[in-house]
Amino acid sequence: MSRPDGINIPDGKFYLGDAGYACRPGILPPFRKTRYHLNEFSGRNYPRTAQELFNLRHSSLRVTVERAFGALKNRFKILDQKPFHPYSTQVKLVLACCILHNWILQWGFDEHVPGEEEVEPDDIVSSGHGVEAFDNDAWKNKRLEWAEAMW
After folding, report:
1. Strand pairing of 15-16 and 27-28?
2. Which value, in Å, is the radius of gyration of the alpha carbons in the chain?
């Protein structure tokens, strides 16, 4: 992401990253060595710190995003296959599928569109991304501020 042709994240925006990412501007990973997965907070296992609450909400958002992609890939099989289109066409395909999906949700099904199937999210897998990176202290402090504001 730090390469000249890497992803450009606009100021004030960020991507949710897993624990394999460093905390830097534009990337918001969970707190390390802190409870994270939703099942760790089940029952009466409420968050006990601002960092745990932040991680709980981070995990909930990631699961929501994964379910959305799962629903799209389930409905539009072209998104679940190895891409053979040029990148610019792939971007347009994803956008078109999102538009069709939202249209179906608003206006209902028709005879040409298959019904939506039940989609369960995969387990979240945290892995290294093959890139060594270091946390950005300013961004870590901002994440801590947000966690404490939630608390």
Report:
1. parallel
2. 18
- Domain ranges in the chain? 35-114
Q: Which residue has the higher pLDDT, 19 or 108?
A: 19
Cross-strand partners of 28:
16
Q: For residues 47 and 30, what is the distance between their CA atoms, to the nearest angstrom? A: 14
DSSP one-letter code for 41? G
Prediction pTM value: 0.61
Contact of 31 with 21, CB cutoff 8 Å? no
pLDDT digits (tens, 9 = 90+) for 108-141: 766 555 554 443 433 333 334 444 455 677 777 8
- Among the listed residues 149, 128, 151, 138, the one whose alpha carbon sits nearest the alpha carbon of residue 32: 128
The runs of H, that is alpha helices, within the chain are: 50-75, 87-107, 137-150
Question: CA-CA distance, 95 to 79, in Å (whole number)?
Answer: 11
